[in-house]
Amino acid sequence: MTIDHSQYFLAPRPRPIRPPKLHHATFMTMDVDAMVAFYELVAGLQPVYYAQHAAWLTNDDANHRIALLRLPGTHPPVDKPHSAGLHHTAFEYETFDEWLDNYERLRDAGVLPEICLDHGMTMSMYYADPDGNGVEIQVDMFHDWKVSKEWMWASQEFSEDQIGPQFDPEKLVAARAAGLTGDEIHERARRTEYFPANPRLGVTFDDPWPAKIEADPTLAEGVPLPAAVDA
Fold first, then answer.
1. Hey, where are the domains in the chain?
2. What residues does the VOC domain cover (predicted)?
3. Cβ atoms of residues 164 and 147 within 8 Å
């Protein structure tokens, strides 16, 4: 039997002695206002600095966790769901109840997830921001990063399926209302007891740009470049 090892397994692994921590993600955008409004609603990110051309937002003690840049020459992506690049950013709640409460809050505001997955170590709901970037809202179902990391590394279950079953979040809301705990709901979700009636095919997000450009053809021209200054 041939084992399909990755290049990471086969190659040397040079690492810094003291690795830096991930601090923030930066997005090129053509609409700073829409992006600020979305990330504040979905993940509680508030602007530290906010202008027409850029914004820096945070939801903790860091000076920023998301940066948004509207730079001259920025243009709409082409076939965004199938282009190489960032798939999604992720934000984590500490408890199952906080996580599910957030789903209900966003649902009531008219914002629904594109796909919901029980990955095993997390239960995750994936949203799409106004530019078509994915945003994962998750909760660690082992309640301990050390344990969930060990499960990812060692379990046969994750080795065989890194995506996990889909679930209908409304069925989770009903199960909690019936008295089930988060751990019980997680176990049942892994057994596909909350599988959606209309599951999503694939884990890519819909491309919003064709409809945006149809509604406003000037978007295809991109963010204008600065006017030339005569000497």
1. 23-79+207-223, 87-205
2. 21-140
3. no
User: What is the separation of C-alpha 42 from the centre of its chain, rounded to a whole number of angstroms?
Assistant: 10
Query: pLDDT (tens digit, 9 = 90+) per residue, 177-229?
Result: 999 999 999 999 999 999 999 999 989 999 999 999 999 999 999 999 987 65
Question: Residue 197: which residues within 8 A CB-CB, separation 6 or more?
Answer: 168
CATH no., domain 23-79+207-223: 3.30.720.120
pTM, 2 dp:
0.91
For domain 87-205, the CATH architecture is 2-Layer Sandwich (3.30)
Q: What percent of the chain has pLDDT over 90?
A: 88
Q: Crossing angle for the helix pair 182-190 and 96-108, nearest 10 degrees?
A: 80
Domains 23-79+207-223 and 87-205 are alike in CATH topology? yes
Statement: residue 175 has pLDDT above 70: yes
